[in-house]
Amino acid sequence: MLLLLVFVSFLGLGASAPFILALGYVWVDTFRPQDVAYIILNQLPVAFIMGAGAIGAYLVFDRRDPPRMTLAGMAPALLAVWTTITMAWAVAGDFAWTKWDWAFKALLFATFLPYVIRSRVQIEAMAQVYLFALAANIVPFGVKTLISGGGYGQNLGLAGGNAGLAEGGQLSTFCLMAVPIAFYLSKHGQLIPRNLATNIAYKIIIVLSVVTALGTFERSALLGSAVLGIYMFMRARQKVLFGTVLAIATAILIYTSSSAFMNRMNTIGTYQADSSAMVRIMVWKWTLEFVATHPLGGGLNCYIINVIEVPGDGVNPPFVDHSRAFHSSYFEVLGELGIPGFALFIAAIASTLLALRRLAKRCRNIPHLAWCVDMSDALQSGIMVFATSGAFVGLAFQPIFWYFIAMSVSLREYVRRVENMTTTTAAPGWRGRAVKATSGGALAAVAGWRQR
Q: Tens of pLDDT along 127-164?
């Protein structure tokens, strides 16, 4: 009943503030209440209801300040179109359409989000919804890991099975992506009062996120954690303090890690002796050979046609594996969407990171935009985790990654609007004086920066 109440609350509040319906869709897409609920919600098309409501409310009530046409903003839409086109020659048949059904909607909604997520409050609200939706898996999995030590392939979270957040690779990656968001919210959050209790709560989520990620025993989680720590250290203002905490945390991790965890991580350097890792490399080799003859890709889920001949190693005999998944976001896109889709995918990541770096540099000396700098750093850190862990997990079409791209577009557009208002403030005549009188000191400060 609690989940039903949350669902109805999103719908009710969305009647007066349409962007809340978009947040409701993010909650549904991240938390997936229909997979957890025992009554009502598991019988309803909750994603369709929330998504249709969000888009309908925008078209009827909220069409203002649309974002600019940028590469990062249009990349999800272009990929959605190209994904649909590739269905004309998809080799997986109905299996391809099954993936298209959710991948297309994820890309399309990520394109839509910057149209309704425009202000600081809305950007923060989206970050909060993402973090709290994910916390439903972070908290139980993290606590159980602290008690039991975790393990590879164990379902310790809220969801069961081997898909979505129940799959270790996805869960660990998205938990690590949540860490910089939680750091940002603990420092700049406005929707929830900042005090000792909320600060402790955010820190607990941060700790449990890392514990959950490492508790999955996924090798990609260890690599993602290393990149996250390094990138956050590089972006930190108090590098000595952050580095000290990071070093202590690393020492504690090494000291408390079980032998099973260490044995699992040691296979990173001895992949030839690990059949799972070796098969993964053979699949990547097959993908490169497939794209050499199919440069436009084989359509979604085209891995179903692969046949992998794994040679013996003196201990294990040779064997043949069929329909082995890509286990890499990059090879997933390359195999399914070919060279054009791969180029769009890489362009979306690279252009987003570059734009966020420029935004942080531009806003660094503007006091009232300090939150934009830290939000930019958080989004960069999250995307870098995806770029690293995603190299070993097939996450290319997962909504959470594209929500990070959407939040990045929303943040850049927010800064652009502030700068445009500042330019208007500085304009001569009565229009400039009128805007200045109603804008307050914040815009005046921006005007001063613009002049400098």
A: 999 998 888 888 887 787 777 766 665 666 666 666 66
What backbone torsions phi and psi does residue 48 show, to the nearest 5 degrees? Answer: -65, -45
**The one-letter amino acid at 274:** D
Over the range 123-157, which residues count as b (16 or more CB within 10 Å of their CB) and which as e? bbbbbbbbbbbbbbbbbebbebbeeeebbeebebb
pTM: 0.84
Residues 105 and 88 in one domain: yes
Q: What is the DSSP pairing of strand 307-310 with strand 319-322? A: antiparallel
For the record, the structure tokens of 81 come out as 């179109």
Distance, CA of 207 to CA of 198 (rounded, Å) = 14
Residue 369: which residues within 8 A CB-CB, separation 6 or more? Answer: 363, 415, 418, 446
CA distance linking residue 133 with residue 30, whole number of Å = 6
Same domain, 240 and 164: yes
Containing structural domain, residue 276: 70-118+272-411
In a domain, 417, yes or no: no
Write the CA distances from 315 to 198, 274, 311, 319, integer angstroms. 54, 11, 11, 12
* Sequential DSSP letters for 405-443: HHHHHHHHHHHHHHHHHHHHHTSSHHHHHHHHHHH-HHH
First to last CA, the chain: 56
Share the mean pLDDT of the chain: 81
Q: Could you give the CA distance from residue 59 to residue 78 in angstroms, rounded to a whole number?
A: 21
Helix (H, G, I), strand (E, B) or coil at 309: strand
